[in-house]
Amino acid sequence: MKIIPLVAAGIAVLTGGTAPAQAQFVWPTAGVIGSSYWTDRGSFYHKAIDINGSYGTKVVASYAGKILLRGRYSACEYYGNLVAVRHGGGYDTYYAHNSRFASGYVGQSVGQNQIIAYMGQTGNAASVHVHFEVRRWNARIYSYACQIYVPGYRGMRVYAGQKINYSFPGLTGGTTTSSLQARKVTSTDLNVRSGPGTGYSILGQAHQGQIYIRTAVSGDWSKIWFDGRTGWVSSAYTVSAAGAAARKVTASLANVRTGPSTAYAIIASAHQGEIYGHILTSNGWAKIWFKGRTGWVRGDLVVPVAVD
Ligand SMILES: [Zn+2]
């Protein structure tokens, strides 16, 4: 198994000149796409994505918004237990066939990645799956008029929180969970410089496969957290590392140790608001990338933070 090093990221303070993160839907659950958009069902075209998975798998809101529908509706019994979320920009997302609902109510605000239901087979469903629709400019339940295209092909594996690689213009309606983006280095050696251009001095080098948290963009250059400080790399030699995990420190001070218990030596301190790449969790301790090496912090002193 190849372990991809995640280098420590620092305080997520975004300053002037930061490119705003584009609002983005994420896949609402983990599984394999069984039916893509525009599958011929004989009497109609399936203008949605079906994601096959395990009974009871969490279903999360694809983007921040307010719960629009939550229940079982006789006018469209085929949806079974349905949740719909209204976002800004005229967008609604529908999640059908759920086994049960997470706590919540119509009108409640939900954040992106917040659990809203659990996968099932209620309504007209031949298998356990989530029927996921994106609609625009449509307030009605029963209408195929406004279901818009969502990418994805049969057999494609997706997971909850994974960014849907497609642009939905005008999507708004809540704060995204993060304006940070994880970037993976694609060149063997990549110079990290003190500013956004080759005229700036070289601080160090990043290497192929390493993942950094990007906090700002200037032209073709990305500002990344690099060994506890910031530096700039040419964006052309990095790609999005969607799905990379990160943890934000919530305590004013968190000891970083050589192993997953207080018996291990303290090698450094992490501070409130700092964000680190997360490798794994063991016995309530989180293993993180910390200033170019790995270390362990108490799991209750950090929280997951979404990076695009
Ligand atoms: Zn479907």
Structure description:
The structure is a single chain. The chain is an all-beta fold and 308 residues long. It has three domains: 2-158, Distorted Sandwich (Glucose Permease (Domain IIA)), CATH 2.70.70; 181-240, SH3 Domains (SH3 type barrels, Roll); 245-304, SH3 type barrels, CATH 2.30.30.40. The protein contains no helices and 27 strands. It has strands at 31-35, 39-40, 45-46, 49-52, 58-60, 65-72, 81-86, 91-98, 100-101, 109-110, 115-118, 129-136, 157-158, 181-185, 189-193, 202-207, 211-218, 221-226, 229-234, 238-240, 246-249, 253-257, 266-271, 275-282, 285-290, 293-298, 302-304. It has an eight-stranded antiparallel sheet with strand order 10-6-7-8-12-4-1-13, with no helix packed on it. Strand 15 (189-193) and strand 16 (202-207) form a beta hairpin. The two termini are 24 Å apart. It binds zinc ion (ZN). The site of zinc ion (ZN) has 5 residues, from loops.
Give the overall pLDDT as a whole number. 83
Number of domains: 3
Low-confidence stretches: 1-20, 174-178
Secondary-structure-based class equals mainly beta
Count of β-strands: 27
Helix tally equals 0
Could you name the CATH homologous superfamily of the largest domain?
Glucose Permease (Domain IIA)
Q: So, CATH architecture of the largest domain?
A: Distorted Sandwich
Largest sheet composition: 8 strands, antiparallel
In short:
The chain folds into three domains: 2-158, Glucose Permease (Domain IIA), CATH 2.70.70; 181-240, SH3 Domains (SH3 type barrels); 245-304, SH3 Domains (SH3 type barrels).
